[in-house]
TrEMBL record:
Annotated PANTHER family: MAJOR FACILITATOR SUPERFAMILY (MFS) PROFILE DOMAIN-CONTAINING PROTEIN-RELATED, PERMEASE-RELATED
Record key words, sorted: Membrane, Transmembrane, Transmembrane helix, Transport
Annotated organism of origin: Kwoniella dendrophila CBS 6074
Gene Ontology MF terms in the entry: transmembrane transporter activity
Entry protein name: Major facilitator superfamily (MFS) profile domain-containing protein
Main location as per UniProt: membrane
Transmembrane segments: 83-102
Signal peptide positions (record): none
GO CC aspect terms: membrane
Length: 142
């Protein structure tokens, strides 16, 4: 996205076409995020809520995104491209935060779980009321 901000207005149309093709040719992250949310939800009850909230966020983002490029910014949309670059940066920051958070939570759980003896682990598995991602033996996908 950053390249679109600094792309000169008088660039050759085929060079611009190549740049736009490369910018739009990234892998779509939606299937990865859906599967990660599903795996990290743990229980069916939580998975249902997480899937609904994720779907609402995607739909809201689609409504907001349709207003980024404004007719007053045509034909090169420099302002809209700056907004999209900022949103891309924020998305990268959120992905890094999620990675760090899930790693931290896995370490917390492992610290407790690894200190259990085999008998304590068996007793926990037999008697726990923890469900889904609240269980000590659950590992978050990240």
């Amino acid at each position: 996205m950053i390249i679109l901000i600094f792309l000169p207005n008088d660039i050759n149309r085929w060079a611009k076409y190549a740049v736009l093709t490369l910018v739009q040719g990234y892998p779509y992250c939606h299937p990865i995020l859906v599967s990660m949310n599903s795996m990290n939800a743990g229980s069916v009850r939580t998975r249902t809520v997480v899937s609904s909230v994720y779907n609402m966020a995607v739909q809201a983002a689609s409504l907001i995104a349709s207003n980024i490029y404004q007719p007053s910014d045509a034909p090169y949309y420099h302002k809209g491209n700056r907004v999209l670059a900022g949103l891309s940066g924020a998305s990268i920051a959120l992905v890094l935060f999620a990675k760090l958070w899930y790693s931290y939570r896995n370490k917390q759980k492992s610290k407790i779980w690894d200190n259990y003896t085999l008998a304590e682990k068996e007793e926990y598995l037999a008697t726990t009321t923890d469900k889904g991602n609240k269980r000590l033996d659950f590992k978050f996908l990240h």
